[in-house]
Every structure is written in structure tokens, then in C-alpha cells.
Design brief:
This protein is mainly beta. Helix content is about 0%, strand content about 60%.
Length: about 110
């Protein structure tokens, strides 16, 4: 089965946009991302491998202002577990686009 979860903390509204990778698997068995948006916007978060191929779309939805956590179990679009290595995660909103590099460690 697939595990992509989203934890919403709507009470906290950030003053500006932010996006971070909090961990890259290891002991928790998932990758955890956090982002904050100060206003309602469409949000898309996708993961790419080292060659630039999209391996998973984690989120594509309109979100209210707030802080959100996205949990991902390192499984691609076809349900295949991804191996250790370097990956990139891209977040795109109406006004911002940011890419972060992370290392998947098992």
C-alpha cells in the first residue's frame, strides 16, 4: 500500500512562504517535508530522481494558509520502493517555486 500523509496545522499562519526537508527516511521509514503558505494557493509537491525524472507527485491541491507536513514512504508512482540515493523535491505554488536536494537513506 501507499503511504503519503498530510498533517495540517491551520492555527499557525506563517508570515512568508517556506519549505524544508525534515528527514530522509532512516529510522522513521518515511521522508518528512514541511511547508508554510501565508495565503490560499494551489500547491504541487513532486519528487525527482538524480536524472530529473519525476518519480512521484505527493500533492496537487488548493490549500488554505497554514503550516503543513507531508509524509512519504519513498514509493514511486507505480508502487515500487525507491533505492538509496540523491533525489530532489520541488514545491510549486502560484507565486513560488523551490527545489530542495535530499539523500534517501535506508
Amino acid at each position: 500500500y501507499e503511504f503519503t500523509g498530510i498533517l495540517e496545522k491551520k492555527r499557525e499562519i506563517p508570515k512568508k512562504f517556506f519549505f524544508n526537508v525534515l528527514n530522509s527516511l532512516s529510522r522513521d521509514n518515511y521522508v518528512k517535508f514541511v511547508y508554510g503558505i501565508p495565503s490560499k494557493t494551489e500547491v504541487e509537491i513532486s519528487v525527482y530522481n538524480i536524472t530529473g525524472r519525476k518519480v512521484k507527485t505527493l500533492l496537487k491541491d488548493e490549500k488554505e494558509p497554514g503550516i503543513y507536513y507531508v509524509l512519504w514512504n519513498a514509493v514511486d508512482e507505480r508502487g515500487k520502493k525507491l533505492g538509496q540515493g540523491t533525489y530532489f523535491v520541488k514545491i510549486k505554488t502560484k507565486d513560488k517555486e523551490e527545489i530542495k536536494k535530499f539523500i534517501l537513506v535506508k
